[in-house]
Amino acid sequence: MRPPERSRWKTAARIGLPALGLALLIWLFATVGWSAIRANLAAIGLWFPALVLLYFFAQAAFALSWWETIEPRPRAGLLARVFAVYLAGDTVNYLLPAGIAGEPVKAHLLRDRVGLPAGIASLTVHKHADMLGQWLFVACGLGVALYRFEVPPAVAWTAGAGVGLLLLFFVALTWALARGSFSPIVTKLSGISFLEKHLAPHLVEAEQLDRRIHTFFSRHAGRYAAAVAWSLVGWCGGLVETWIVLKLLSSRADFATAFAIEALAMLLNTMFIWMPGRVGTAEGVRVGVFVLLGLPAAQGAAYSLVRRARELLWAVPGATVLASSQSSAEPAREEAA
Prior knowledge:
Blueprint: H1 4-32, H2 34-44, H3 47-69, H4 79-95, H5 102-109, H6 111-114, H7 116-148, H8 153-179, H9 182-190, H10 193-199, H11 203-219, H12 221-249, H13 255-269, H14 281-292, H15 297-336
Helix pairs in contact: 2-15, 3-4, 3-7, 3-12, 3-15, 4-5, 4-15, 5-7, 7-8, 7-11, 7-12, 7-13, 9-10, 9-11, 12-13, 13-14, 14-15
């Protein structure tokens, strides 16, 4: 049973953190000035629906990256289902801290088509490929930012630490997958007396899962490279969005500025993975990056609102998939009962 004190702290954090983020958001926009923000939003105008639709290609690229890692490779007719399940998991990742809670959801929702072991193995490989794609993106973007702009040393070191930390995570995950990531964990936890009877029966399944992952890496290097490439294309979706918004807001903005903004914002936002939905913190970081690169704060605030609105709209299809999966599971449980 969970200690009452821990439960109270968890409840307080669940309520307090979003409230704190919302307060930061209100303070930020009040400081910048709503009239200036509204003028910049008017410059974007009817381009906003186009930006929302354009992000379909980024989401499709991420889904294709996952599809490449499913073994055996599903038939093309399953792509629509993979895309829908990806959106559902992405919605969970967006709303909850740390950004990994959606991965078990994806495996669960696709289990009837590819099987749970294949789903877990593919998501593990996909996360590895996605991490490499993201690292390539932010490393190049940070290089552009440092070459093109006079970034304060503190910001440069912080962003550089973010690149280094992401690379460290990638190396650690590579090492874990090479030695077997699931079976050592189950074996270790099975040594705890009260967990032994629950976990020991699953040791064989964990070993099979590790073998699936090893087999994919040894036999499908080309498909892994394709997964990395698709993930890189997906991360570039936000870059294209940023470039279009900048062109609408300022005739002086160019692609290098958009690249610097996207990479720096992505890196600095990694410090706030504990914030649900990064409410307030994402907006604060984006406005700060605009000011840092010599752009008006009002443009940064308008850009952050457009990005937030697009993210929320793309969370709707995922939430719909989750809701429909839940409703369809209810009759099945009733019949089983």
